[in-house]
Write a structure and sequence with these properties.
Elements: H1 2-21, E1 44-54, E2 63-67, E3 81-89, E4 98-108, E5 115-124, E6 133-141, E7 147-155, E8 162-173, E9 176-187
Antiparallel strand pairs: 1-3, 1-9, 2-3, 3-4, 4-5, 5-6, 6-7, 7-8, 8-9
Subcellular location: Secreted, Extracellular space, Apoplast
Organism: Brassica campestris
Signal peptide: 1-20
């Protein structure tokens, strides 16, 4: 009788091991300790200001139209898509210190006004943030004095980032623009 109980106990144990290692689609996620990812430290709030230079004109544009807007909506840019690799500088002047690049795209998403969807990474190139990024994804009502867009993530020192940016247009000429981005980033 003891052998039978032992045999059944071993069978139940083996069955539970086999069923827990099955790839049935239910075991794809697990809870892990935050400390394994270096999340022991207290979250920080970092503020920085950069100037975004969207250059459409000239011999070396940093913003190119990859899909023109629907003709009917050409004044609102609806349906248009532009890919960007814009300079981020420390001051309004394009010739000031290069902090990094804004890489991504914007697209016309509103039919009756200039309303853009912005999807871009700020890729930092200098100092302690060199190689780190923040990701901005949101609506830009380009004709408003101040526009707010969310920071939805980041990498490097901005891993697990969240926050928001405020955009203010500082200068425009021939569809070129310089926009001040005031960024508020929560990160570890």
């Amino acid at each position: 009788m003891a052998k039978l109980i032992f045999f059944l106990a071993v069978q139940i144990l083996l069955l539970s091991v086999v069923s827990s290692t099955r790839d049935d689609g239910e075991n794809f996620a697990r809870t892990i300790d935050r400390k394994l990812l270096g999340l022991r430290r207290k979250e920080k709030l970092t503020h920085f200001k950069v100037y975004w230079h969207d250059m459409i004109s000239g011999p070396n544009p940093t913003s190119i139209i990859i899909q023109p807007p629907v003709k009917k909506y050409s004044t609102t840019y609806f349906g248009g898509i532009s890919m960007i690799d814009n300079a981020l500088t420390a001051k309004v002047s394009r010739n000031s210190t290069l902090i990094g690049k804004a890489q991504g795209f914007y697209a016309g998403a509103a039919q009756k006004e200039l309303g853009l969807i912005m999807a871009m990474n700020f890729v930092f190139k200098i100092g302690k943030y060199n190689g780190s990024t923040i990701t901005i994804l949101g609506r830009n009502s380009a004709m408003s004095e101040v526009r707010e867009m969310p920071i939805v993530g980041g990498s490097g020192l901005f891993r697990f980032a969240r926050g928001y940016v405020e955009a203010r247009t500082k200068w425009t000429r021939n569809l070129d623009a310089t926009v001040e981005y005031s960024c508020y980033v929560l990160h570890y």
